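Ticket closed. Logging final result for Pantoate--beta-alanine ligase.
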Amino acid sequence: MASRLAHRHIALQWSYRISSQPSTSQTRPARIFARCIHIFRDIPPLRQHRRQLLLNGDTLGFVPTLGALHHGHLCLIRAAAAENSKVIVSIYLNPTQFGVTEDLNSYPKTWDTDVAQLRALDAELARTHGAGRIEAIFAPTTKAMYPTSPPDSTIPGVGSFITLTPLGTLLEGASRPVFFRGVATVCMKLFNIVQPERVYFGQKDVQQTVVIRRLVTDFHLDTLVRVCPTEREPDGLAMSSRNVYMGQRRRKVSVVLSQALRAAEAAYGMGRRERGDILALAWDVANRMVMEQEALGEAERAGIEVDYFSLADPDSMEEVEVVDGERGAVLSCAIKMLPLEVTKPGEVLGLGEDKVPVRLIDNIILQPQRPS
Ligand SMILES: Nc1ncnc2c1ncn2[C@@H]1O[C@H](COP(=O)(O)OP(=O)(O)OP(=O)(O)O)[C@@H](O)[C@H]1O
Ligand SMILES: CC(C)(CO)[C@@H](O)C(=O)[O-]
Ligand code: BAL
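Final structure:
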């Protein structure tokens, strides 16, 4: 009984969808079962449900998220539904991957629209021949996820953690020292709880995908890791939950990230293999934007700081001097969009009124080239 009460259902009733075809004796109204998407807040009822899925012969795809869902997340779920009969999505703002000075408290929280998007997507999947369905949302409490000691985000870190060294200390890990410890730890917990056949991650967080593959290999986890392409806005900006922090002014400037990467990718496309030759083009684009912004007045400009441009090995994420054409490389970048110094009346502002610094990341895979 306790376990039955421990999760809620959304969409409790059956519904009928009228087919766009006229109804005749041959073409009856399509009768589509608006199934409930279960919402689990605790682990035992989810485990029990998962056992039932196994007994029913279902395959399970898992999409972990921090919530504030956008089109990029929905693409991961579609990919999961394309190769599994059931999909579980987790929505959990994991505290241990946020450093003590980072944006955990202001991170966008959009539970109602997240659930509405998942319901709409599930209805779309119901109409898609052969697609799996969204079975459940796992939105655990922090007490459930961190049962024995409160989650600690300090660098010494009291608690049980997984670290991947040196991989987790490079690039994003250099700027966010507890980030990959938190990600690896929470993903290990989530994978142990959900026991998915396949897990789905976005290419946008490229180093995270390398960390997850390493976690699965080194800890012999029985799951397949799938990586889905980065979904972008029409101007090239990678979709990200944090983009809502940017109002119109910072949003316009943020396009520099993808433009810089594309310039460097073009150098690789033209046969350049030396680090300096490839990254110089990215730096040129970024420096030009920095100077353009600096030349404007306080009420017009949006400041940016480049954290890194990187050209790294796809398995280790260690920097390379020359791209091995048979291995390819990961070209990646992180920038900080600085808070606006002065805002103007009537200006379209982002979440937190453009006072929150926004760290944006992006990458392009430089594909291995076949020797001609
Ligand atoms: N634009 C995107 N295209 C494809 N996958 C994405 C995209 N953005 C995020 N994802 C993936 O969705 C999963 C959940 O990510 P998360 O909830 O942190 O969203 P996010 O947009 O990356 O948020 P943030 O702004 O905090 O980086 C991750 O595997 C992430 O790589
Ligand atoms: C994988 C993840 C959900 C772990 O909290 C998070 O790092 C993310 O959303 O990319
Ligand atoms: N998608 C990455 C999550 C984070 O930046 O914390």
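Strands lie at 7-10, 37-40, 60-65, 86-91, 133-138, 198-202, 224-228, 304-312, 329-337, 358-366. No further action required.
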